């Protein structure tokens, strides 16, 4: 368990410095009064890296993002329940129920793109809420394929509203909180704090349409956009949440070489 894990003090110091540097870049890019959430994307990185930023009794960071169900299940069992997990990776319908049911501190699933996946998440969360009344509804974001690339998951822009309505009307233990996009890598690389990345412009427009379709204030819907290469530009375009991995934790190992618990 967490109290048995050995954290390398040098590594912990490095990670804390990286996190502080990202936080100050976020604050510098944010010209508004809104709060921007930073998800530290810890996929394929060891549990000790997460614990280094979330040590008791005074964690310096709470929100962590993961992409693989099995890896997240393992990490969530090892690490403190005070962590707020975000599932941001490609979702498979047959894993949705366990994802929503087995991780009480799963805070948000940012990558829903079909009704079937929503229904499976709903099933899992409903079962969990029935067995533990302290568990909150599960936040979900609809992932939109704003770049039209075949390799990217996400709903087509025109289908975002229908999926949002399905969540709001049919999934009482899910809470629809916003929209997420990854966007094209080339556009991402070309993004600066001054350029208008087309994917971010598109997601903002889709958010406005979805809010209108639901008769909600658009401020009620968050935008999750921006990664290591482009988070400052995303903030300029109105992002409420950025997902930063490599600029905090360094380059990731190949999936086959990743380990949750490093051997001492
Ligand atoms: C891996 C990943 C990130 C983090 O990417 P970096 O470039 O390492 O910051 C953000 N969002 C999603 C959906 C990811 O899969």
From TrEMBL:
Cofactor(s) needed: pyridoxal 5'-phosphate
Alphabetized InterPro entries for the sequence: Ala_racemase_N, PLP-binding_barrel, PyrdxlP_homeostasis
Coiled coil: none
Record-listed N6-(pyridoxal phosphate)lysine modification sites: 43
Alanine racemase N-terminal domain sequence ranges: 18-253
Any Pfam family matching the protein: Ala_racemase_N
Keyword hit for NADP: no
Single GO MF descriptor: pyridoxal phosphate binding
CDD domains per UniProt: PLPDE_III_YBL036c_euk
Keywords for the protein's UniProt record, in alphabetical order: Pyridoxal phosphate
Function in brief: Pyridoxal 5'-phosphate (PLP)-binding protein, which may be involved in intracellular homeostatic regulation of pyridoxal 5'-phosphate (PLP), the active form of vitamin B6.
PANTHER family with a match to the protein in the record: PROLINE SYNTHETASE CO-TRANSCRIBED BACTERIAL HOMOLOG PROTEIN, PYRIDOXAL PHOSPHATE HOMEOSTASIS PROTEIN
Family: Belongs to the pyridoxal phosphate-binding protein YggS/PROSC family.
Name of the protein in question: Pyridoxal phosphate homeostasis protein
């Amino acid at each position: 368990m967490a109290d048995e894990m050995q954290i390398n003090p040098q590594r912990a110091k490095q990670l804390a410095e990286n996190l502080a540097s990202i936080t100050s870049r976020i604050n510098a890019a944010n010209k508004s009064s809104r709060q921007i959430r930073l998800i530290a994307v810890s996929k394929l990185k060891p549990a000790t890296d997460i614990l280094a930023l979330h040590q008791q009794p005074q964690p310096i960071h709470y929100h962590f993002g993961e992409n693989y169900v099995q890896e997240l299940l393992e990490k969530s069992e090892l690490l403190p329940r005070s962590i707020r997990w975000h599932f941001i990776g490609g979702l498979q319908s047959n894993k949705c129920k366990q994802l929503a049911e087995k991780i009480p501190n799963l805070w948000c699933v940012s990558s829903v793109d079909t009704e079937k996946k929503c229904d499976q998440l709903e099933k899992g969360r409903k079962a969990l809420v029935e067995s533990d009344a302290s568990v909150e509804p599960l936040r979900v974001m609809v992932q939109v394929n704003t770049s039209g690339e075949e390799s990217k998951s996400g709903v087509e822009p025109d289908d975002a509203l229908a999926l949002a309505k399905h969540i709001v009307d049919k999934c009482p233990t899910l809470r629809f909180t916003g929209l997420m996009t990854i966007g094209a890598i080339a556009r991402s690389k070309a993004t600066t704090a001054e350029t208008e990345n087309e994917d971010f412009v598109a997601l903002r427009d889709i958010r406005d349409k979805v809010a209108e379709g639901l008769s909600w204030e658009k401020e009620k819907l968050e935008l999750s956009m921006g990664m290591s290469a482009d988070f400052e530009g995303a903030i300029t375009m109105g992002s409420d949440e950025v997902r930063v991995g490599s600029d905090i934790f360094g380059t990731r190992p190949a999936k086959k070489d990743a380990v949750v618990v490093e051997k001492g």
